[in-house]
Amino acid sequence: MRKATALFQSWSKNMVRYGLSTGLGRLYSNQVETAALYQLGNFLFPAGQADRDLWQDYTSQYGLAEKIIISEDFSWREFLDSQSELQPFTRYAFSDKIDFDAEALEKWQSNLPAGFQLCPIEEDSYLALAEEVWSQDLQGDFVDFAHFQVAGGFGFVLYLEEEVAAAVSTGLVYEKAIEIEIATKPVYQRKGLAKLLGAQMILEAQKRSLIPLWDAHNVASMKVAESLGYRFLGAYPAYELKETFWKG
C-alpha cells in the first residue's frame, strides 16, 4: 500500500498526517493504487483520483452512517458534491504549531461555576458518556474503557450534582499528540464550560508532552479554539449523510 499511502503525502490535515504516521486506522485502495480511502475513527478521507467503484465497494460493505468525509483532492471533492445522499458543511482547521499562554489557560481552568465538579474520566463516567446522544462521541475511537486507558486516552467530566453537564476527552491518541473532543449538554451551553474544559485538557496534554490538536466541527467550536490560543488556518468543506446531518 505504499503508493496508496503516498497519495496523502501533500495533505495538510493533521488527523491524516498524525494518524498515518502513528499507524492508526485502515487504508483501502483500488487495485492500481490511484485512489485510496483512509478511515480513522468516524472520519473518512478519500485521496487520489476519484474512483466510483472503490467508493461503491466501500459504502456497500461499511456504510457511511455517522461518518464525516473530508478530502483535499479536487476530483474527490467534485465526486462528493455529485452524491445526492451527502450534505456538505463547513469545518475549521487549526495549526499544530501552538504557543499557548499558560497563565490565561490556568485562569480559565480555575473558572469553575458554582455547583459544578470537575473529575477525571474513570470507568463509570466513561460508560455514562454513552447514555446520551450529545456525549457519545466523547468515548472516542476505542472499544471500551480498558482500550481507552491502554491507548493513552484521558479526559475530564463536569458534573452538576450527579448529572454529566459537559466533558472533554481524547477522540484519538497519536504517538505524540491527541485529538481534543469536547461536548456540552444543550441545556448547559453558553456558560463557558467548553472553554474551561479545553484549558484543562491543553494543560494536561502539556504535562504529558503531547500536542493537543483541535479541528472544529462548527463555528462555536472554532470560537472556543481561537479564544484558547489556537491559530486558525481556514475553513474547509466536509460531508455527511443527509440523515446524519439533519439529526445533528
Descriptors:
globular, alpha+beta, four-stranded mixed β-sheet, 248 residues, 34% helix
Concise summary:
It contains 10 helices and 12 strands.
What does this structure look like?
By secondary structure, this protein is α+β, with helices and mostly antiparallel strands. Helix content is 34%, strand content 29%. It contains 10 helices and 12 strands. It has helices at residues 2-6, 14-22, 52-62, 74-81, 102-109, 123-128, 145-150, 193-207, 219-228, 242-247; strands at 26-29, 35-40, 43-48, 68-69, 86-94, 116-120, 155-160, 163-173, 177-184, 211-213, 215-216, 232-241. The strands form 3 sheets. A 5-stranded mixed β-sheet has the order 6-7-8-9-10, sandwiched between helices. The protein has a 4-stranded mixed β-sheet with strand order 1-2-3-4, with helices on both faces. A 3-stranded antiparallel β-sheet has the order 11-5-12. A hairpin with a 2-residue loop joins strand 2 (35-40) and strand 3 (43-48). The longest helix is centred in the last third of the chain and has 15 residues, at 193-207. The radius of gyration is 18 Å and the shape is globular. 38% of the residues are buried.
Determine the mean pLDDT.
Answer: 95
* Helix/strand/pairing category: alpha+beta
Q: What oligomeric state do the depicted chains represent?
A: single chain
Tell me what portion of residues adopts beta-strand conformation: 25-35%
The main pleated sheet reads as:
5 strands, mixed
